[in-house]
Amino acid sequence: MRKTPVLYIIVPCYNEETVLPLTAPAFLEKICALAEKGMISDASRTLFVDDGSRDNTWKIICDLAKKDARYMGISQSRNRGHQNAVLAGLMEARSRCDITISIDCDGQDDINAMDEMVAKYLEGFEVVYGVRSRRDTDTLFKKYTAQLFYRLLNWMGAEVVYNHADYRLISSLVLDELAEFKEVNIFLRGLVPLVGFKSTEVYYERSERLAGESHYPLSKMLSLAMDGITSLSVKPIRLISTMGFAVSALSFLMIVWIVAQFFAGKTVQGWASTCAIVCFVCGIQLICIGVIGEYIGKIYLETKARPRYIISDRTYETEEKEEDKE
Ligand code: UDP
Ligand code: MG
Fold it and tell me: Does domain 7-232+306-325 have CATH number 3.90.550.10?
């Protein structure tokens, strides 16, 4: 059995003023309950990451932190998206704790799965994925698009855990290694399995949002899917090559056929087939250029090596700041 770990619950929040007051107490209660059971240390905390909210979210976080030292908060300098917010929280917490659990702040992920997650860590696992056992509360559309998304990712060769979103336990040992992945386009669901270490799954039921609205409309879901695929897999580029070869082979056969037609004296009628071929090849070329463009775009962004998150505010003082004062 391991020593009692310090747990940091990482909660990304973007315009969540309606739901945060409802869910924040639940995180604290969970920490108290786990500490009482002796599963985690009393030094455990809830760390909120404000992802550049435009509403009162940051104020609510500051008030919570004032009320109870077990609430902490950091604020990103602007909205950078869910993945970067989670990463900011994980990186901020990794030197302060032994384990982190990232969870959405809208009460959709069953907080009671944390007991099992911590238990798995105590058994010796370094990463515990929270996996949805059902998708009853999702709309049919979301259910099917999500399924398609996981299938597509796996087919493309990106290893992701089926039906696992970003509710997971990661030990600081794994976080230190994750910090070495310097890419700017991050898709944590694909990166964490790449880091490796002993991992397992815990099943939970996902319920409906307690209040407020989802920040993941179809456009954001599509861009997440695109990021996931292009940052983890080079299969689309390979597909282009395969398609190129196939089209070339086909074209070669066509040329043979065209020459034969020419000698048979039937070439005048060829307008329709010529047009069809030109259109077909143009289409394929455009698709190919588009896919290559996606990757070049990624390379462009990665070469800039911009910071992946910028913390503008904290509800607590960091060690450097405290040292400055002395
Ligand atoms: N979120 C964020 N930045 C964003 C969008 C969302 O930090 O730009 C947070 C949000 O506050 C929530 C989590 O990410 O805690 C998941 O978002 P949401 O519940 O809107 O997505 P859904 O559950 O509908 O997929
Ligand atoms: Mg949600």
Answer: yes
